[in-house]
Protein: Prepilin-type N-terminal cleavage/methylation domain-containing protein
Amino acid sequence: MNPPTHPTDATPPPRTDRRAGFTLIEIIVTVVLVALVGLMMISVSGTALRGSAESLARTTTQAQLTDIIESMTADYRKLYATANDPISSIMGRIGTAGSTQTNNRYTTGSYTVQVNRRIRFTGSAPNFTEQADSSGDMLRVTIEVDGSTATTLFSR
Structure:
């Protein structure tokens, strides 16, 4: 065998048995990055789902309030055509202020009557004021369902 004549001939040939794959550092960095991205996605999706559920609950409550008010209005229209004092009649059907009404002619659920009184407006535009009036020609009704309220006026 001839001695090496060039310095690069003395270097050993590359190892052919080296295994292909990732180093431990590469794997750790990848796992950490995937965990961080996953954590951000969970946080964002959780907030979006929570907001969506709250929005759906509000919409459902508003729809229930609208249905109740529409039922009261339809009932008042019938009373207006047939009763001598439709305001007194509808007042009795709605319930007294502070009472909770359940499964009545206006809803299969429940609502709380916040205001149910005859009123009149005094003053001149734009400074009208509302006053309670036991013989008033208007009825103010405010109902509440799950923290949301709706107000309507009935008049002769």
User: Anything to note?
Assistant: The first helix runs from residue 24 to 82.
